[in-house]
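Issue 218. Parser rejects a valid record. Input:
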Amino acid sequence: MGFSTADSLFAPKAKALPGWDAFTQGSPRRVDHSPWSALLAKHVRLDSAGIARVNYGGFSGADKVDLTRYIDSLGKTDLQALDKPEQFALWINLYNAAVVNTVLAAYPVASVQDIDTSPGLFSSGPWKAKAVTVSGKALSLDDIEHGIIRPHWQDARVHYVLNCGAVGCPNLRAKAYDARRINVQLEAQARIYVNHPRGVTFDPSGGLVVSKIYAWFCDDFGGTDGAVIRHLQRYAAPELANRLMPITGIADARYDWALNTV
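Output the parser choked on:
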């Protein structure tokens, strides 16, 4: 896949971390995500361009305590007692909450990439730094995304619900994800992003320009230009779908790492 080769080489691969695959089929247990929903409702707003912005500067001391308590509560949840959809929603909400918590600890910053807490001489951003403790094990944001969510669920739509704190990322939803509606929510987030210029646009000559998400995680979307385009067509509104119909290749991929702050 020509447009994505260089980017995909440096993107983290999905590789399952051991010990995170047990679940209880049909379990009635539910996780309370209402504290996270309350914080999202208070601090996330859509701007005039349809981009979800977070009012990081508006988090009070009490809000920060509530966020930390919520993250800690997820970390102490008996994951094996949950069914797989409940686990899915938990991991997505935990990732998003941990990103916000990470940004708050460093705010103000121009970009999440400026939060250079990852170990290693050539690492950048906070992705590899241990950010949460779950079932007594310290995990990084990369551990959650690439070691747990991607390999265990193998659903390309996860890329539409994990928010990394950048403008180029799919919107941070202003309400927690709910296991009972997770498929509907995944579909909705996919449509929003595909039909926004951050996801899909065209260059002056009519060439297809897509988010670098489709380059970094090309394999998750099928591994070829054609597979990515077919994925985009599935979620495109009629006008965009018609414009995509004759296109057989992707001209470029772009991404805006500016912080998604108000």
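Fixed in the parser; the record now loads. Strands lie at 44-46, 52-54, 130-134, 137-140, 200-202, 208-211, 252-254.
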